[in-house]
Amino acid sequence: MKKHNFSAGPSILSxxxxxxxxxxxxxxxxxxxxxLEVSHRGKExxxxxxxxxxxxKELLEVPAGYEVVFLGGGASLQFCMIPYNLLGKKASYxxxxxxxxxxxxxxxxxxxxxxxxxxxxxxxxxxxxxxxxAEDSDYxxxxxxxTIFGTEIRYDPDMKMRMVCDMSSDIFSRPVDVxxxxxxxxxxxxxxxPAGVTLIIVREDALGRVERPIPTMLDYRTHIKKxxxxxxxxxxxxxxxxxxxxxxxxxxxxxxxxxKNLEKAAIxxxxxxRNKLFKGxxxxxxxxxxxxxxxxxxxxxxxxxxxxxxxxxxxxxGIKGHRSVGGFRASLYNAMPKSSVEALVACMKEFExxx
Length: 355
What we know:
This protein is α/β, with parallel strands linked by helices. It contains 9 helices and 14 strands. It has a 7-stranded mixed β-sheet, sandwiched between helices. Strands 11-12-14 form a 3-stranded antiparallel β-sheet, covered by helices on one side. Strands 1-13 form a two-stranded parallel ribbon. A hairpin with a 4-residue loop joins strand 6 (145-146) and strand 7 (151-152). The mean pLDDT is 97.
């Protein structure tokens, strides 16, 4: 039976990425060695790292004055690296979910943090609107897609100050105006590669402005200067990331991915809205196209466990909702084929027929 991987992360990867990465585990670039054991300073891997960084710039149309680095530590390490490098006196943050809240907590260790708005009181079921950001903020930080709650900011806000964004779960899913940001960061395990590497896009002239001393490993300039090779980088995830980036280019780039993602999400949301058994959990205008969260309608709550078992038996993997929300979550990352979304919809229709 075909498995349909809706896991929120680590998540589905393209067949292209898996096939090429598996081949490199056995024999990398004709070296007779596995990608798991080669030197990160060997010319073969240096070429991989250089190509991956260049392809990020190409796909996202990164303007001059920005650098791309690959770091360890996950996006969570960036919660402190951002304020360490950028927060002089005050920064503004938008609280839209668990990861935004964690970023706020870390930033408060470094200076004043103005939480401009929060949807916590409604269990993060919407994106706050009409908030004001102080113009003397060193930066405005937001999380573009909230994997746990299923909301998404699918545009680049217009702000008078520079922005910082955690795009861990929707990077490469839509075009981005990189010029509006000081830093864009993304853990790889949603739309890029296996867990273990984090992508950072950083505006160089935003650095070196804070007065505090910064530990060497936490200073972005260290990693820019050494081209992500200050210490041993996560070699295998970077190799896998390059395969994903090549696959994106083959598919027609980021605009093509966005078109496919909108189509996939519409198929599932239309069924959620039509099917008497289910309902969405967030404001319609803020629905994520990456993480679709839904629950059983109130009068059918007792069927939740039954549907979970039914879907699992039909090959649906990873659709259990996060404990903060309950119900179900179908993650439709870039590598998710439309056929898998259609299979889930068929499963929902069949379950409705039976009840």
